[in-house]
Design goal:
Length: about 350
């Protein structure tokens, strides 16, 4: 392609390795982005956070776009992700979230009994306008060749925060609620999956090029429970998404759930680092995969990082449709140089492999 010539922008963008991989097309090298790439491991992010609280960062489109764009550029990623959080969707639904330094997100109100569901409202189109403004600002701020990923949390993962308050206590309250109040659970999951689908569709309309559904905690369920209590709502959610946009379906601890998760939807399946990427991919015919380096590998020395990157690339066996990523978010104590070294290693090693 005549890169740099006028008019090449749009074409270059259509051909971005990330979007090509999401369509299972051949790519010049394996594209990579990092979950939580705009986070505390980045000195530039920590500087921004010294000036403003996390929620302000999310609510100010100029700052949110600065965080997203600079993170993608600093590490040389092949995609950017909108700077926001999955729990912000719960606020217009009647459940405010407080982000406390050193603690994490705290819901000031929770669902403890079926009666508390009376408080849960469906969000309206105008709620979270700041997220859609951030999508627009980020799209404008990104080079044309870098695609932008919009995202939302899966209904089960959102329910974990509403009921258990988080993942720390082993999902006991959430599961007990699910088993004890099946009719109320259906209402809760229906409301949450519609809200998440609407939120994703509005990010697509604002300019997101791909969508990711984070069902981070769904791996605590058995396949039977996933099928009975989650799958129908995930199916409905994916059906509501705009056609033609890649949808990434991610969870952790999901080794036993990959088939039903694939059935639920998404063109790209996110893999955590406990599965062998090649063997997991064999179980997902027709799918693309994203993953799956252990985030802790980035705390080790560079030669190991490069070795592990090559190991995962060889597990992909040159099949088109691999987006390189970690198996979960990058840890705050990760040296940023190691993240850059990983991105370079993936680009270099896969470029050589593809050329063979
Ligand atoms: O680059 C990016 O990925 C930025 C966008 C983003 C954030 N959160 C920003 C954030 C994304 C995609 C998320 C997703 C998210 N948020 C998930 C699903 C993915 C996953 O990691 O499992 C979950 C479960 C949450 C909920 C959440 N938000 C937690 C548990 C925490 C505290 C712990 C932590 O990892 O920081 C947050 C806060 C949060 N969300 C921060 C950022 C940058 C840190 C805020 C700060 O202190 O500056």
């Amino acid at each position: 392609m005549a890169a740099g010539e006028e008019g090449a922008g749009a074409l270059e963008f259509m051909d971005s390795p990330f979007l090509q991989a999401c369509r299972r097309e051949r790519t010049p090298y394996t594209p990579i982005w990092i979950m939580r790439q705009a986070g505390r491991y980045l000195p530039s992010y920590r500087r921004l956070r010294k000036k403003v609280p996390f929620k302000t960062l999310c609510r100010r489109p100029d700052l949110a776009s600065e965080a997203a764009v600079s993170a993608a550029e600093e590490i040389g990623a092949d995609a950017a992700i909108v700077f926001s959080d999955i729990l912000l969707l719960l606020e217009p639904m009647g459940f405010p979230v407080d982000y406390r330094d050193g603690v994490g997100p705290v819901l000031t109100r929770r669902i403890r009994t079926p009666r508390d569901l009376a408080r849960l409202r469906a969000p309206e189109a105008g709620d979270l306008g700041y997220v859609y403004d951030a999508v627009k600002a980020t799209r404008r701020g990104l080079p044309a060749r870098l695609p932008l990923i919009g995202f939302a949390g899966g209904p089960f993962t959102l329910a974990v925060y509403l009921i258990d308050g988080g993942a720390r206590r082993g999902f006991r309250e959430t599961k007990a609620f699910m088993y004890r109040h099946p009719a109320v659970w259906r209402r809760l999951m229906t409301t949450l999956s519609r809200a998440a689908a609407g939120h994703l569709a509005r990010q697509a309309r604002a300019g997101a090029d791909a969508l990711q559904l984070f069902d981070t905690w769904v791996g605590c369920l058995s396949p039977a429970d996933y099928r009975a209590h989650v799958l129908p709502y995930m199916k409905a959610l994916f059906r509501r998404l705009p056609a033609g946009l890649p949808a990434i379906h991610f969870g952790t601890g999901t080794a036993s759930l990959l088939e039903p998760m694939r059935e639920a939807g998404g063109s790209v399946m996110g893999l955590d680092s406990t599965v062998d990427l090649g063997a997991a991919w064999d179980r997902l015919p027709g799918a693309c995969v994203m993953g799956n380096l252990d985030p802790c590998v980035l705390l080790a020395k560079r030669p190991l990082i490069r070795r592990e990157a090559r190991r995962i690339l060889s597990a992909a066996r040159g099949r088109p449709g691999h987006v390189f990523n970690l198996g979960h978010g990058v840890l705050p104590q990760t040296p940023v140089g190691n993240v850059r070294a990983l991105v370079d290693a993936v680009h270099e090693a896969s470029g050589v492999m593809e050329a063979r």
